[in-house]
Design goal:
This is Peptidase A1 domain-containing protein. The protein is mainly β and 418 residues long. It is 3% helix and 36% strand. It is globular.
């Protein structure tokens, strides 16, 4: 008689880090199988990117030719990470990925968590595990295609979704583990297509494990928009009501900064542009502005899906957050304007930075400096994502809350720790 396994599954390959704010969440999965395995490699869990990025060096004494013969290949791609400006170029492969873990029985049962994902294999040694909730094809997200198995137990598909804590990752969503989360319902959209396959290894398109339908559309062909928030910016010494901008929200466990991307004259609901005195020093090399010290920013989820209260938190630039606060431990950065080619959201408004004037800090621009380029966060499908006004709050909100992405029903939410 086989025992039933209980969801969600708990990943045990978590690497203990000295400082979550500096390092984030790290895991050590096994990628590939047979004689083409990457294991014992530290991968940072990154909700700001999509797709796994792994070093060819970590697969041992093999090359791209061996990988081309064994795994479906989807061509060459370059992944760009911001605000670091680091880039990695490699080839996409669709590969099996395994974690060690337990189920949610009492006492828990040791399980193997099996999944697949698009893996960008690059020269050298690198380890990033992108699990973005930005509306990309589920094939890029290893957390959304998982199942768990154990000896003498039935294999259990895990409903697509995950919950993140500072030192714990749960895969699968259930009514019980979603209880108490406050956040936003998401809008379903069709997933963007995968890149064109470049070899003839058999490829079966992946989908989340539960093929239930929603609004008449099969769940296994869907992805979701990002949730809306408002961002209020109060400049130093400002004595008028602070402008509040309707933006899109992104939690990014890959960074401890906050990144804000919107046109410089992107107006709020009352016509107020970004306060000039809110911006401080300009980093010409990276095309980024630091927000000025004593600027206060507030992110608010509107009341909606699960609460009439919503969620709101604030931080002041230059003031270090105390333990248990959600504010960033790194800088708050203005990344300049996004582009507007997204098929998810097409906001109206100017798409270029206007010429900067003397109303800004005199340290903003050195002689000959140019306005910020159009930045993209790390993504596997740049035309589908990152091209909308947004606030990327980094990883530090996990100091105050746990984070839930329900990719089956379309929901992102938070629950206070403790």
């Amino acid at each position: 008689m086989k025992s039933p396994l209980k969801t969600p599954a708990v990943i045990h390959n978590i690497v203990k880090m000295d400082d979550f704010n500096k390092s984030g969440i790290h895991v050590t999965p096994t990628i590939g199988d047979g004689d083409t395995i990457c294991n014992n490699t530290n991968f940072q869990v990154d909700t700001g990117s999509s797709g796994i990025v792994a070093g060819l060096e970590n697969f041992g004494l093999i090359g791209y030719e061996e990988l081309d013969k064994k795994y479906p290949c989807f061509g060459v791609y370059t992944m760009h990470y911001y605000p670091s400006t680091i880039s990695h170029t490699g080839k996409w492969y669709y590969m099996p990925v395994c974690f060690a873990g337990t189920d949610s029985s009492n006492p828990p049962i040791a399980v193997t968590i099996q999944s697949h994902a698009m893996v960008l294999v690059c020269p050298g040694s690198v380890g990033m595990m992108g699990v973005s909730a930005k509306g990309e094809n589920p094939a890029f997200n290893v957390f959304l295609q998982a199942s768990m198995s154990a000896p003498y137990c039935e294999t259990v598909p895990l409903d697509p979704g995950y919950t993140l804590f500072r030192e714990r990752v749960l895969l699968g969503t259930t009514t019980s583990n979603m209880k108490g989360y406050v956040g936003s319902s998401l809008t379903m959209v069709s997933p963007p297509p995968l890149p064109t396959q470049t070899n003839d290894v058999k490829f079966t398109p992946p989908f989340p494990s539960n093929p239930a339908s929603k609004d008449g559309q099969p769940q296994d062909t869907a992805c979701w928009t990002v949730p809306p928030v408002t961002l209020q910016i109060t400049a130093p010494g400002q004595d008028t009501p602070a402008p509040s901008y309707p933006l899109c929200f992104e939690l990014d466990t890959g960074i401890n900064q906050v990144l804000i991307a919107m046109p410089y004259d992107f107006a709020d609901t009352t016509g107020n542009p970004l306060p000039p005195t809110a911006l401080g020093q300009y980093n010409a090399g990276a095309g980024q502005w630091f927000f000025a010290p004593k600027t206060t920013l507030t992110v608010t989820f509107p009341p909606g899906a699960t609460s009439d209260d919503g969620i709101s938190y604030s931080w002041t630039v230059g003031v270090a957050p105390t333990a248990g606060e959600a504010g960033p431990t790194g800088p708050t950065l203005y990344m300049g304007p996004p582009t507007y080619t997204s098929t998810i959201q097409q906001p109206q408004g100017p798409t270029k930075l206007p010429p900067l004037s003397g109303n800004l800090s005199p340290e903003l621009l050195p002689p000959g400096a140019k306005p910020a380029p159009e930045h993209h966060a790390a993504t596997a499908q740049p035309l589908q994502n990152n091209n909308f006004p947004r606030v990327n709050v980094g990883r530090c909100p996990l100091n105050a809350w746990s984070y839930l992405f329900d990719a089956q029903n379309g929901f992102i939410g938070f629950k206070a720790i403790g």
